[in-house]
Design brief:
By secondary structure, the chain is an alpha+beta fold. It has helices at 27-37, 41-45, and strands at 2-5, 19-22, 56-60, 63-64, 80-85. The chain has a single domain (2-85), classed as Ubiquitin-like (UB roll) (Roll). The protein is 16% helix and 21% strand.
């Protein structure tokens, strides 16, 4: 069993839960398990080809899975996963200061 931290934008899909659990052997099976429990979640995390969206970061015990084995990163009982949407935007400091 692994614990998954759910970001605020995805909580409507989990009934408002900020943390859920799943049985999974790797990140891919964790995504499938979550989608089974909370239909539609996979579509928000993965693109049409099943790849993790560029603006979604997934951390295993605080380490970015992109630097591990991506979706094939193995999981073990007690691992903690965080799904973190990338934050973009903001104004350049000099904008509007003319």
């Amino acid at each position: 069993m692994v614990k998954i931290r759910i970001p605020t934008p995805l909580r409507p899909l989990t009934g408002g839960k900020s943390e859920v659990e799943a049985m999974a052997s790797d990140i891919q099976s964790m995504i499938e398990s979550l989608n089974g429990q909370f239909p539609g979640l996979k579509d928000r995390v993965c693109d049409d080809k099943g790849e993790i969206r560029r603006f979604v970061n997934i951390y295993l015990n605080e380490e970015d899975i992109r630097f591990l084995k991506g979706k094939d990163t193995p999981l073990k009982d007690g691992d903690e996963i965080s799904i973190v949407p990338a934050i973009a935007g903001g104004a350049h400091p000099s904008q509007g200061d003319a």
